[in-house]
Design goal:
The complex is a heterodimer of chains A (115) and B (117).
Chain A lengths: L3 E4 L2 E4 L5 E7 L5 E8 L3 E10 L2 E4 L7 E2 L9 E3 L8 E8 L10 E2 L3 E5 L1
Chain B lengths: L2 E3 L4 E5 L4 E3 L2 E3 L4 E8 L5 E7 L5 E3 L5 E5 L4 E6 L8 E9 L10 E2 L3 E6 L1
The chains are: A mainly beta (115), B mainly beta (117).
Protein backbone atom coordinates (compact mmCIF):
# COMPACT_ATOMS: atom_id res chain seq x y z
CA UNK A 1 0.00 0.00 0.00
CA UNK A 2 1.32 3.43 -1.00
CA UNK A 3 1.75 5.50 2.11
CA UNK A 4 3.67 7.97 4.21
CA UNK A 5 4.45 6.76 7.71
CA UNK A 6 5.50 8.79 10.71
CA UNK A 7 6.80 7.74 14.08
CA UNK A 8 6.01 8.27 16.79
CA UNK A 9 2.37 9.28 16.49
CA UNK A 10 2.34 10.85 19.94
CA UNK A 11 5.24 12.19 21.96
CA UNK A 12 5.48 14.04 25.25
CA UNK A 13 8.92 15.33 26.12
CA UNK A 14 10.66 17.97 28.18
CA UNK A 15 12.39 21.16 27.18
CA UNK A 16 15.87 20.64 25.79
CA UNK A 17 15.72 16.89 25.24
CA UNK A 18 16.68 16.14 21.65
CA UNK A 19 14.17 14.19 19.62
CA UNK A 20 13.69 12.87 16.11
CA UNK A 21 10.44 12.27 14.29
CA UNK A 22 10.86 9.82 11.45
CA UNK A 23 9.10 9.97 8.10
CA UNK A 24 9.21 7.36 5.40
CA UNK A 25 7.44 7.00 2.05
CA UNK A 26 7.26 3.98 -0.22
CA UNK A 27 6.21 5.72 -3.44
CA UNK A 28 9.69 6.63 -4.71
CA UNK A 29 8.78 10.30 -4.43
CA UNK A 30 11.47 12.90 -4.93
CA UNK A 31 9.82 15.71 -2.98
CA UNK A 32 9.25 15.54 0.78
CA UNK A 33 8.18 18.18 3.22
CA UNK A 34 7.44 18.81 6.90
CA UNK A 35 4.57 20.96 8.15
CA UNK A 36 3.30 21.97 11.52
CA UNK A 37 -0.38 22.54 12.16
CA UNK A 38 -1.53 24.94 14.85
CA UNK A 39 -5.09 26.09 15.61
CA UNK A 40 -6.02 29.16 13.61
CA UNK A 41 -2.78 29.09 11.65
CA UNK A 42 -3.37 26.21 9.27
CA UNK A 43 -0.35 24.33 8.00
CA UNK A 44 3.02 25.99 7.81
CA UNK A 45 5.98 24.49 6.05
CA UNK A 46 9.07 23.83 8.13
CA UNK A 47 11.51 22.30 5.65
CA UNK A 48 11.31 20.60 2.32
CA UNK A 49 13.53 18.44 0.16
CA UNK A 50 13.55 18.28 -3.62
CA UNK A 51 15.72 15.16 -3.69
CA UNK A 52 18.41 13.26 -1.84
CA UNK A 53 20.89 15.61 -0.15
CA UNK A 54 18.82 18.64 -1.25
CA UNK A 55 16.94 20.42 1.53
CA UNK A 56 15.70 23.95 2.01
CA UNK A 57 13.93 26.06 4.59
CA UNK A 58 10.22 26.62 4.56
CA UNK A 59 8.35 29.33 6.41
CA UNK A 60 9.13 28.33 10.00
CA UNK A 61 12.48 26.51 10.10
CA UNK A 62 13.85 27.92 13.36
CA UNK A 63 14.55 25.21 15.92
CA UNK A 64 14.35 22.35 13.44
CA UNK A 65 16.79 20.34 11.36
CA UNK A 66 16.24 17.80 8.62
CA UNK A 67 18.31 15.42 6.56
CA UNK A 68 17.69 13.49 3.36
CA UNK A 69 20.31 10.78 3.05
CA UNK A 70 17.96 8.35 1.36
CA UNK A 71 15.09 9.01 -0.99
CA UNK A 72 12.48 7.34 1.18
CA UNK A 73 13.34 8.93 4.55
CA UNK A 74 13.11 12.51 5.75
CA UNK A 75 13.53 12.77 9.53
CA UNK A 76 12.71 15.94 11.48
CA UNK A 77 15.12 16.72 14.28
CA UNK A 78 14.51 19.01 17.23
CA UNK A 79 17.92 19.53 18.85
CA UNK A 80 16.58 21.42 21.86
CA UNK A 81 12.78 21.41 21.90
CA UNK A 82 10.90 24.26 23.51
CA UNK A 83 7.24 24.56 24.54
CA UNK A 84 6.44 26.71 21.48
CA UNK A 85 7.19 23.66 19.35
CA UNK A 86 4.21 21.87 20.83
CA UNK A 87 2.19 21.16 17.72
CA UNK A 88 0.83 18.60 15.28
CA UNK A 89 3.43 17.69 12.68
CA UNK A 90 2.81 16.26 9.23
CA UNK A 91 5.21 14.80 6.75
CA UNK A 92 4.24 14.82 3.09
CA UNK A 93 5.68 13.60 -0.18
CA UNK A 94 4.98 14.06 -3.86
CA UNK A 95 6.32 13.08 -7.22
CA UNK A 96 8.17 15.91 -8.90
CA UNK A 97 7.75 15.89 -12.63
CA UNK A 98 9.03 19.18 -13.89
CA UNK A 99 6.21 21.31 -15.20
CA UNK A 100 3.37 19.69 -13.34
CA UNK A 101 2.63 19.88 -9.68
CA UNK A 102 1.52 16.61 -8.21
CA UNK A 103 -0.59 16.19 -5.12
CA UNK A 104 1.11 15.79 -1.81
CA UNK A 105 0.47 12.63 0.18
CA UNK A 106 0.38 13.19 3.90
CA UNK A 107 1.36 11.04 6.81
CA UNK A 108 -1.01 10.50 9.76
CA UNK A 109 0.62 13.18 11.90
CA UNK A 110 2.73 13.31 15.06
CA UNK A 111 1.32 15.13 18.05
CA UNK A 112 4.22 16.57 20.02
CA UNK A 113 3.96 18.11 23.48
CA UNK A 114 6.99 19.83 24.96
CA UNK A 115 6.72 20.50 28.69
CA UNK B 1 4.47 35.57 -3.21
CA UNK B 2 1.46 33.35 -2.91
CA UNK B 3 -1.18 33.48 -0.21
CA UNK B 4 -4.57 31.96 0.50
CA UNK B 5 -7.50 33.45 2.37
CA UNK B 6 -10.26 31.36 3.86
CA UNK B 7 -12.55 33.77 5.65
CA UNK B 8 -13.85 32.50 8.94
CA UNK B 9 -12.83 29.32 10.66
CA UNK B 10 -16.06 27.43 11.02
CA UNK B 11 -19.20 26.80 8.98
CA UNK B 12 -22.26 24.84 9.97
CA UNK B 13 -24.85 23.40 7.58
CA UNK B 14 -27.79 21.05 7.83
CA UNK B 15 -27.66 17.62 6.29
CA UNK B 16 -28.83 17.89 2.69
CA UNK B 17 -28.02 21.59 2.42
CA UNK B 18 -25.55 23.21 0.06
CA UNK B 19 -21.95 23.35 1.18
CA UNK B 20 -19.98 26.43 0.11
CA UNK B 21 -16.46 26.98 1.36
CA UNK B 22 -14.76 30.10 0.07
CA UNK B 23 -11.15 30.44 -0.96
CA UNK B 24 -9.40 33.44 -2.45
CA UNK B 25 -5.80 33.41 -3.48
CA UNK B 26 -3.03 35.77 -4.35
CA UNK B 27 -0.37 34.72 -6.80
CA UNK B 28 2.06 36.61 -9.00
CA UNK B 29 2.18 33.76 -11.50
CA UNK B 30 -0.47 31.34 -12.76
CA UNK B 31 -1.39 29.16 -9.82
CA UNK B 32 -2.12 25.55 -9.16
CA UNK B 33 -4.99 25.34 -6.67
CA UNK B 34 -5.94 22.54 -4.32
CA UNK B 35 -8.51 21.58 -1.76
CA UNK B 36 -7.51 19.13 0.94
CA UNK B 37 -9.73 17.56 3.59
CA UNK B 38 -8.70 16.47 7.05
CA UNK B 39 -10.99 14.09 8.89
CA UNK B 40 -10.67 13.93 12.68
CA UNK B 41 -7.37 12.46 13.83
CA UNK B 42 -6.16 11.89 10.30
CA UNK B 43 -3.72 13.44 7.85
CA UNK B 44 -4.78 15.52 4.89
CA UNK B 45 -6.02 13.99 1.68
CA UNK B 46 -6.58 15.60 -1.67
CA UNK B 47 -10.16 16.46 -2.61
CA UNK B 48 -9.46 18.06 -5.96
CA UNK B 49 -7.00 20.22 -7.81
CA UNK B 50 -6.87 22.74 -10.62
CA UNK B 51 -3.77 22.85 -12.79
CA UNK B 52 -4.72 23.90 -16.30
CA UNK B 53 -7.67 23.40 -18.65
CA UNK B 54 -11.27 23.18 -17.50
CA UNK B 55 -12.01 25.67 -14.75
CA UNK B 56 -14.71 23.53 -13.11
CA UNK B 57 -12.99 20.72 -11.31
CA UNK B 58 -14.73 17.70 -9.87
CA UNK B 59 -13.29 15.87 -6.92
CA UNK B 60 -14.05 12.99 -4.64
CA UNK B 61 -17.19 12.61 -2.53
CA UNK B 62 -19.30 14.87 -4.76
CA UNK B 63 -17.25 18.02 -4.22
CA UNK B 64 -16.36 20.44 -6.97
CA UNK B 65 -14.63 23.79 -7.27
CA UNK B 66 -14.47 26.46 -9.91
CA UNK B 67 -11.37 28.46 -10.73
CA UNK B 68 -12.31 32.08 -11.43
CA UNK B 69 -9.25 34.03 -12.45
CA UNK B 70 -11.06 37.39 -12.55
CA UNK B 71 -12.17 36.92 -8.95
CA UNK B 72 -8.99 35.11 -7.82
CA UNK B 73 -11.25 32.53 -6.25
CA UNK B 74 -11.48 28.77 -5.99
CA UNK B 75 -14.61 28.12 -3.93
CA UNK B 76 -15.51 24.56 -2.95
CA UNK B 77 -19.11 23.38 -3.24
CA UNK B 78 -21.21 20.31 -2.71
CA UNK B 79 -24.94 20.34 -3.53
CA UNK B 80 -26.06 18.23 -0.60
CA UNK B 81 -24.12 17.85 2.64
CA UNK B 82 -23.75 14.48 4.30
CA UNK B 83 -22.89 13.80 7.91
CA UNK B 84 -19.65 12.17 6.75
CA UNK B 85 -18.51 15.51 5.25
CA UNK B 86 -17.80 16.88 8.71
CA UNK B 87 -14.11 17.68 8.62
CA UNK B 88 -11.64 20.50 8.23
CA UNK B 89 -11.03 21.78 4.72
CA UNK B 90 -7.89 23.50 3.50
CA UNK B 91 -7.42 25.48 0.35
CA UNK B 92 -3.84 25.62 -0.97
CA UNK B 93 -2.01 27.37 -3.77
CA UNK B 94 1.21 26.67 -5.57
CA UNK B 95 2.74 28.61 -8.40
CA UNK B 96 3.18 27.12 -11.84
CA UNK B 97 6.91 27.30 -12.18
CA UNK B 98 9.27 26.37 -14.94
CA UNK B 99 12.08 24.03 -14.09
CA UNK B 100 14.35 25.27 -11.36
CA UNK B 101 11.69 26.83 -9.19
CA UNK B 102 10.82 25.59 -5.74
CA UNK B 103 7.55 23.75 -5.45
CA UNK B 104 6.01 25.38 -2.44
CA UNK B 105 2.48 24.70 -1.30
CA UNK B 106 0.85 27.48 0.72
CA UNK B 107 -2.17 26.56 2.80
CA UNK B 108 -5.05 28.62 4.04
CA UNK B 109 -5.92 28.51 7.73
CA UNK B 110 -8.62 25.94 7.25
CA UNK B 111 -12.38 25.80 7.63
CA UNK B 112 -14.09 23.41 9.98
CA UNK B 113 -17.35 22.09 8.55
CA UNK B 114 -20.07 20.85 10.88
CA UNK B 115 -23.07 19.02 9.46
CA UNK B 116 -26.18 19.02 11.62
CA UNK B 117 -28.79 16.27 11.36
Amino acid sequence: EAQVTQNPRYLITVTGKKLTVTCSQNMNHEYMSWYRQDPGLGLRQIYYSMNVEVTDKGDVPEGYKVSRKEKRNFPLILESPSPNQTSLYFCASSRTSGSHYDEQFFGPGTRLTVL
Amino acid sequence: AQSVTQLGSHVSVSEGALVLLRCNYSSSVPPYLFWYVQYPNQGLQLLLKYTTGATLVKGINGFEAEFKKSETSFHLTKPSAHMSDAAEYFCAVSPFLTQGGSEKLVFGKGMKLTVNP
